[in-house]
């Protein structure tokens, strides 16, 4: 069964921008999916709809067979871990506390407010940190870590949720190439070992060959490519990054950047 599925999903923002148009997808467990597309094509909107941060204008999103609705949001969302470009850690808190934040959805409202964690939460958080190779940094302030280490903490926080899905919005855009491959390698390993569906928005098509099982190309809010990375020829890539109103030089610059 698909872990994430969407049916005729559309999103129009209050200012009238049509960010997504009729997207129907089924993403499988244990699959690493990369979403590519030019700036403004709807990649972030799609991920935000996957975890209920945005509500669809039309269509629906299901996680593990449950349609996301306002009333089940908290329950369903805990199955969906998020990893962000700028890590979204609380810098003045230690690493362990940042990872424990991934456990909040399993605690009562009061427990969450008071940050009352159980022994089990500490055990799960510690396991997650060990998994990303940072167990010895548990009591260090998060802002004392390197960017790559902070992103690993972000992944550990997602893992502490015991998720079925990890959504990664530009997870390596702030990292150097070596660290980027380490982070993507870690996500791929987790995807395989835990049978988690990983969905990552990337600006670098070159990484797709190494990490993606499936590539989805968005343009103007529509899926215009959905295939294995081996099928991503230069022509198809140009189609994904095509913009009607864009001068040719800008298009070439965007493609060159994407290949950098
Ligand atoms: N909160 C919002 N209100 C209004 N319009 C929005 C909002 N968020 C995004 N948009 C618009 O929706 C469209 C899709 O944006 P989105 O951020 O999903 O694209 P993206 O492919 O992730 O872009 P990038 O690669 O630059 O992050 C864009 O035209 C954007 O300006």
From TrEMBL:
A GO MF annotation of the entry reads: ATP hydrolysis activity
Annotated membrane topology is: Peripheral membrane protein
Q: Which UniProt keywords apply?
A: ATP-binding, Cell membrane, Membrane, Nucleotide-binding, Translocase, Transport
**Residue ranges annotated for the ABC transporter domain, each copy included:** 4-245
On whether Transport is a keyword of this UniProt record, the answer is yes
One CC-aspect GO term: plasma membrane
Q: Transcription: is it a keyword of this entry? A: no
Where is this protein found?
Cell inner membrane
Q: What is its main location?
A: membrane
Kindly give the InterPro entries that the UniProt entry links to this protein: AAA+_ATPase, ABC_transporter-like_ATP-bd, ABC_transporter-like_CS, ABC_transpr_PhnC, MetN_ABC_transporter-like, P-loop_NTPase
Protein name, per record = Phosphonate transport system ATP-binding protein
User: Per the UniProt entry, what species is this protein from, by scientific name?
Assistant: Thiothrix caldifontis
């Amino acid at each position: 069964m698909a872990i994430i599925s969407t049916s005729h999903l559309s999103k129009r923002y209050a200012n009238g921008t049509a960010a997504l148009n009729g997207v129907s997808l089924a993403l499988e467990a244990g699959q690493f999916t990369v979403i590519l597309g030019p700036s403004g094509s709807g990649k972030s909107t799609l991920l935000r709809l996957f975890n209920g941060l945005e509500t669809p204008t039309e269509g629906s999103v299901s996680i593990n067979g449950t349609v996301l609705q306002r009333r089940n949001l908290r329950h369903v969302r805990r199955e969906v871990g998020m990893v962000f470009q700028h890590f979204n850690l609380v810098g003045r808190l230690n690493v362990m506390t940042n990872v424990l934040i991934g456990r909040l959805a399993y605690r009562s409202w009061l427990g969450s407010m008071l940050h009352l964690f159980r022994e089990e939460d500490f055990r799960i958080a510690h396991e997650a940190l060990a998994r990303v190779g940072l167990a010895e940094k548990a009591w260090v302030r998060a802002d004392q870590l390197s960017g790559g280490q902070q992103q690993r903490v972000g992944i550990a926080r997602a893992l502490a949720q015991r998720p079925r899905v990890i959504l990664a919005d530009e997870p390596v855009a702030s990292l150097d190439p070596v660290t980027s491959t380490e982070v993507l390698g870690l996500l791929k390993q987790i995807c395989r070992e835990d049978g988690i569906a990983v969905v990552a928005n990337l600006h670098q098509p070159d990484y797709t060959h190494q990490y993606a099982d499936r590539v989805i190309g968005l343009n103007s809010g529509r899926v215009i490519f959905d295939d294995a990375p081996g099928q991503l020829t230069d022509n198809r890539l140009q189609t994904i990054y095509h913009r009607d109103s864009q001068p040719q030089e800008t298009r070439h610059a965007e493609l060159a950047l994407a290949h950098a």
